[in-house]
Request: fold
Amino acid sequence: MKIYTKTGDQGMTGLFGGGRVSKSSPRIAAYGEIDELNALLGLARAETPHDHLKKVIGEIQYTLFTLGAQLASPAADPKIEVITAKHVDGLERQIDVITGSLPQMRHFILPGGSKTSALLHLARTVCRRAERSAVHLTSLPNEPVDKWVLIYINRLSDFLFILARLANQLESVEDVPWIAPKT
Reply:
């Protein structure tokens, strides 16, 4: 199978489930940012020395493929798995468990610390950008986005923040608090 199809040479691309749109379409931007997030998580997964984090990040990557396919399919398609409340509940349970094992936050924290943590913080910011793109779609005519997609992306950014803190804890690196300068 060839990797190139030449069907996008004129600036158009196909949506999953049919139809062609401009590669500059807001829908393409939204699932492109999910793809970027997935690639960045692949880097975090490759860099972390912790098997537990590798497993958790891998699970998120698989879910992001589902989410990307759903964004690439504006019309409901029974062949496409969709994000549901179950996905969101799973993230929330993990957030609660991990948060319970971390020191209580008393300040905002600066992104960074260990390499894994820094990559997860970067992934969190890409996730927020992907969320903004998905929300933008909802303001456009004929660009539906399922509510669970939006909720999942929102919760995922929270989860990535918690994972970044966990990565620092696992590597015995303290989170760096941001303390407003006194003027």
Q: What stands out?
A: Residues 115-138 form the longest helix (24 residues). DSSP finds five helices and four strands in the chain. The radius of gyration is 18 Å.
